[in-house]
Model the fold of this input.
Amino acid sequence: MTKWCQNPTCPNRKSSGQIRGNKGNKWYQSSSISSYSYGGGNFCTLHCHNEWSEKYMSQAIDALNVRIHEPIKIYLEDSWFVKYDYSWSSGQNSSRYKLVNKLKGIAHIITKEQAQTPEQQAEEYGDWRTINSTQARELAIQLGLAS
Ligand SMILES: [Zn+2]
Done:
C-alpha cells in the first residue's frame, strides 16, 4: 500500500514529481514515501518533516503523554562508551579505540578486538563500529576500571 507524505501542505512544494492528470486537468498532489524518507517513514523530504513538526510536534508529544518534565540523567556507572579515532598521517591510516568515561576522567586505549564484537570485526569497512554502552561497561569491569 502506498504511503503518503503526512505533511498536509506537501503539495505546496509544487515539485514536478507531484504533477498528475492530463492536459487541461492537472494538479499537484502529496508525494508518496519512497525508501528515502524522513521522520520514521512519514515524510517525503526534510522540508515536509520540518513543516509538520513546527505545526504538530508539541501536540503529538502531549497526546502521547511522553513530555519530559525533568532532565534525563546518565550516572557515572552507566557512562562508559567506546570512542573510535581515525587518523591519516604520513600516508598511513591508523585506527585507535578508547574506552571512555568522561565522568570518571578515564580514556583508556583498547584493542580493536576489545572495541568490537566478532561480527563488527568481520565487516570490511566497519572499523568505525564499536560495542554499545552496556558492553563498554562490562569491558570496563573486566579491565578493572569499574566495579
Ligand atoms: Zn511531503
